[in-house]
Amino acid sequence: MSSGTPDAVPSADGAAASVGGVVRVRVPATSANLGPGFDAFGLALSLYDELTVTPGGSGVTVDVVGPGAGEVALDESHLVVRSIRAGLESLGAVVPGFSLRCENRIPHGRGLGSSSAAIVGGIAAAYGLTGTPLDRDRVVELANEIEGHPDNVAAAALGGFTIAWTEGDKGRAVRLEPAGGLAAVAYVPVTRVLTKEARGLLPAAVPHADAAANAGRAALLVAALTSRPELLMTATEDRLHQEFREPAMPESLALVHKLRGSGLPAVVSGAGPTVLVLDVAGGLPAAPDGWERYELGIDPVGVQVWSEQTERGPAGGRE
Ligand SMILES: Nc1ncnc2c1ncn2[C@@H]1O[C@H](COP(=O)(O)OP(=O)(O)OP(=O)(O)O)[C@@H](O)[C@H]1O
Ligand SMILES: [Mg+2]
Fold first, then answer.
1. Domain ranges of the chain
2. Fewer CB within 10 Å of terminal CB in the chain, N or C?
3. How far is the CA of 280 from the centre of ligand 2 (A)?
4. Cα 44–141–212 angle (5° rounding)?
5. Is the C-beta atom of 80 inside 6 A of ligand 1?
6. What is 9-175+300-307's CATH topology?
7. Is the dihedral of CA 25, 61, 152, 124 positive or negative?
8. Is there an atom of ligand 1 within 6 Å of 252 CB?
9. What is the pLDDT of residue 201?
């Protein structure tokens, strides 16, 4: 709460910043790749981390419940704190101190975009702290700088189904409307795979025929996800990354093969090890021992921000 003095102050270059109150952020989990859309496709899922940022004082205090509690740093090096700072800097504002509460639900290191949610959520919080209307394309650009690739951050920022790319070093994305009724089931194992580790297994080059097949399937997947879900099984075939990652996650690939063998469009979610099945709501096989199953909808709007400056509704809502 404001103590009467501004909590957000202009930076030395004099860029505008308004007084900040408490800011709340809700940011979705995301699944990248979706089979053939390697490093480009993203889907926002109805599983959310929530942040509460209360400006005041001169340092940061961080409190985490849910995934990451007891593991992540609770100081300036916390990914959400770093992202709030980066967001403030890009808006030309300084908030010397704040407390951050993270109510996390997205599991870490499982391929459901927890790092992107932390980054996009933190940047969105900076918009809320300064009373600036959310510029989602700018959030994608800035989040890509921190994350290093734009696929998950695009879906977390824009919601729905996204296609991301980079122009030079700038992260860009378009959002497409997923087909009505599209849903997803995530099978999440207890074991983690770090994105860096999974990337290290990919070959430097693939045969032209595999690249051509993937390009065609990726294009087909755009049609399948937006209007022709009956094509999802064929459209989710991949030859660029999933099988190469088998040594890092053999159980995940075994589950993908088993589910696909029963006619279900299963893919490795992001860098794994989560397995995602598209176009289904319930009625799927139980999770293997030691795995959790999440029945999820598609998040339509991406990150949302509520701040004390916003009298009604989310500052970042997509009406
Ligand atoms: N909410 C969070 N708060 C702080 N740090 C986080 C948060 N979420 C993720 N991280 C950091 O990011 C790491 C996980 O990142 P990583 O990219 O490996 O997995 P992921 O984002 O869950 O999955 P993927 O990128 O494959 O979808 C965590 O170990 C932690 O260091
Ligand atoms: Mg990540």
1. 9-175+300-307, 183-297
2. C
3. 25
4. 65
5. yes
6. Ribosomal Protein S5; domain 2 (3.30.230)
7. positive
8. no
9. 87
Nearest CA to ligand 1 atom 1: 118
Region for 82 from its dihedrals, namely left if φ exceeds 0, alpha if ψ lies in -120 to 50, beta otherwise: alpha
C-beta 111 within 6 A of ligand 1: yes
Q: Residues comprising the binding site?
A: 107-117
Q: Is the CB of 115 under 6 A from ligand 1?
A: yes
Measuring CA to CA, which residue among 245, 243, 253 is closest to residue 271? 245
d(CA 177, CA 215): 21
Beta pairing partners, 176: 161
Q: What is the CATH number of domain 183-297?
A: 3.30.70.890
CA separation for the pair 296, 7 (Å, rounded): 38
Instruction: Compute the half-sphere exposure of residue 260: CA atoms within 13 Å on the CB side of its CA.
Output: 20
Residue-wise pLDDT for 243-268, tens only, equals 999 998 999 999 999 999 999 999 99
State the binding site for ATP: 107-117
